[in-house]
Amino acid sequence: PRITPSMADVYRSDFTPDEPDKLLAPASEEPSVDQIFDKYIQALGGADRLAQLTSSVAKGTSQGYAEVRYPVEIYAKAPNQLTTIIHTDAGDRTTTCDGSNGWVAMPSDDRPITLLPLIDDDLGGAKFDAELTFPGGIKRFLQQWRVTTSATIDDKDVEVVQGTFNGRTPVNLYFDPKSGLLVRQVRYSDTKVGLYATQVDYGDYRDVAGVKIPFHRVVSWLDGRTTIDLTQVQPNVPVDPTKFSRPTAPRDPNR
């Protein structure tokens, strides 16, 4: 029996194409992995423009499943540092990747452990999100790239490229064949009960310093969903290095 539920199973919609429990079979037809990635880099603004983007500070709103909107700040520094801070009434929710390590800090209302280091595939996923912020090097980040059979998202055909963190755990990337832009990422964590899926959808690409950046993102996992809408992105601004340090566990506002 299939043991990895898709987001469609969870949210009772056609939100996600069916995802298998194993690596997808490679497709025999064109385009190739290199052609899809070259088109993606060109659609974002080109390799030269991407190389000139070395940092960014973004602000916007974040809305969890059945939640109100909260302010969000996103700090990024090339090549692979990324911190997201959501300011909630109960305290800040912080996800940080310093390029080598990662942490999640959340108020005690959300989980009993308020500061959790990321390990294994969860750390790999955080690193990959950081790499995608400056996507010029994503092809080198994963292994065993292959073009697989196409899929459909929102009644539109998409091209699917798959890689792995470790030769076993798949990461699927879905590209719009017309625009060349990335519209979805689905990655997995290998657990004792099967693969655990995390899905990130990208949209509302806007030009920032000659580079197209998605201002709309939806992150879905098996027991939640967060929608992030950016209102501004400042490119190539100084970012305090402490933004990528191990975060401090939030204090309980009731104590």
Fold and architecture overview:
The chain has 255 residues and is α+β, with helices and mostly antiparallel strands. The chain contains five helices and 13 strands.
Biggest β-sheet: strands ordered side by side in the sheet: 6-5-4-3-2-1-13-12-11-10-9-8-7
How many helices? The count is: 5
Main sheet: strands, sense, barrel: 13 strands, antiparallel
Q: Tell me the distance between the termini.
A: 47 Å
Radius of gyration (CA) equals: 18 Å
Q: In percent terms, what proportion of residues is strand?
A: over 45%
Walk me through the topology.
Blueprint: H1 7-11, H2 33-44, H3 47-52, E1 55-64, E2 69-77, E3 81-88, E4 91-97, E5 102-105, E6 115-117, H4 120-133, H5 138-141, E7 143-153, E8 156-164, E9 170-175, E10 182-191, E11 194-208, E12 211-221, E13 224-235
Antiparallel strand pairs: 1-2, 1-13, 2-3, 3-4, 4-5, 5-6, 7-8, 8-9, 9-10, 10-11, 11-12, 12-13
Features:
about 260 residues, alpha+beta, 13-stranded antiparallel beta sheet, about 15% helix
Task: Compose a concise summary of this entry.
By secondary structure, the protein is an alpha+beta fold. Helices cover 16% and strands 45% of the residues.
